[in-house]
Twin-arginine translocation pathway signal protein (Ideonella aquatica), 168 residues
Amino acid sequence: MQRRTLLTLGLVSGTALALAGAGAAVWTPGWRDGRLSEPARALFAGVARAVLDGVLPQDAAVQAVALKAHLDRLDTLIAGLPPATRAELSDLLALLGTAPGRWALAGLGSAWSEASTADLQAALQAMRVSGSAVRRQVYQALRDLSNGAWFADAGTWTVLGYPGPYRL
């Protein structure tokens, strides 16, 4: 392969990926009308199952209710972010909501809602220790948002041994 052919192939491939990512963000934004989109909710439910394993209720019905409340708190948390940060997060969630984006950034072949907890944990761990600063930042954002929304509820503080704020 000649150098010119390789450079052309790289340029065309990069352009195609950029257009596909931008198209996915336009068609299914991660944040829409003051709420997480359905694909973004599935993503954060998967992240919560992985990050909060052992903290989430074991009963499936109770866990479903807890995850719904968690996702509602995430809506509130994200709504409080600056508009530019919400826009960047929306683009990230849109990209992670697509199969190519999920595979490229998280290394996860299955959909967020279909992956096992072990697969989700392995994907997040790979992101955490990745040599790519972008993958590490994505991991930190997903983990921090998920944990922030979960532990914002006073009902979850007992797991940490936190008695709550002192009454003045």
The mean pLDDT is 87.
